[in-house]
Amino acid sequence: MNEIDEYKDILREHGLRVTSKRLGIVSLLKGFDYPVDAKLICEGLCDAGICINLSTVYRALESLVEVGVVRRINFSDDAKVFYELNRGGHRHFLHCMGCDELISLDVCPLSDFQLALAKETKYRVVSHNLDIYGYCPKCQVRK
Amino acid sequence: MNEIDEYKDILREHGLRVTSKRLGIVSLLKGFDYPVDAKLICEGLCDAGICINLSTVYRALESLVEVGVVRRINFSDDAKVFYELNRGGHRHFLHCMGCDELISLDVCPLSDFQLALAKETKYRVVSHNLDIYGYCPKCQVRK
DNA sequence: ATTATTAATGCGAACGATTTGCGTTTGCAT
DNA sequence: ATGCAAACGCAAATCGTTCGCATTAATAAT
Fold first, then answer.
1. What is the domain range of residue A40?
2. Residue of B nearest to A109 (CA)
């Protein structure tokens, strides 16, 4: 059973139909290691021969987020929403405000803090969002 | 010289005119200790007798952000932009995903991490964005 | 104080991202 | 193979935000 079959099963387990569009989105997202927006997904699939309406992309992404296959991401320097394959765990990014380079950080400095915060506030802490903004070496020179 | 006069001076120092609308926005924001969106500002001012067009609210906020009086904030669970008075320093919030309660955290767990990251990546780190999501005690029971 | 200058405002239209309504197509249980 | 509900395509609607342009008002010049 290959990896795409896993996703088929996840869809079926949640009572969702397995469609070429949904699988197309998943396999497209597999090719990116950074979050992409709905429009790029739409165009990427079209180029791959799977033409799909933009509203269908949104609806499919919504379903995929619901079953946990995809994760929604919202950066504060951009109004639109980004999506990435949910590979377990979570990531944070360092954004260059000059050239929009995006560096994925492999550490999360918040696990201890989050535990302490939960204890202090009695909240059940579920997730967090951390993005760091600055200028990359090249852009520091350019400016 | 009262507090509003300080803001008048800041505007003038930056070559911006002192208008009732801009001062209205500032004094309205003073009344909130959490970030609010443009629409709420518009309606709040209207209720206070200072009727102001929504596009003017956006333009005024833009100016106030430029001169450092106001800060733009972007949460990952909401597409729209929020604004708050820039009281110096920065803040992070704990969001209840059940009732949308917002708790302002008085600590930032990232200062050391940010320094280390800058060193490691050679980025000039300018700012960051951190929000924590979970369920408040009441919503844990409700659910 | 009056007038001239030009930034700030109001209004409506435009915008980009996202959602929705509805008729058509397709996956899948029978 | 057939029927039904879920998914889809399409166009229109929505939401937050921005823009163009004519009008108003804050400040500088007289």
1. 1-88
2. B113
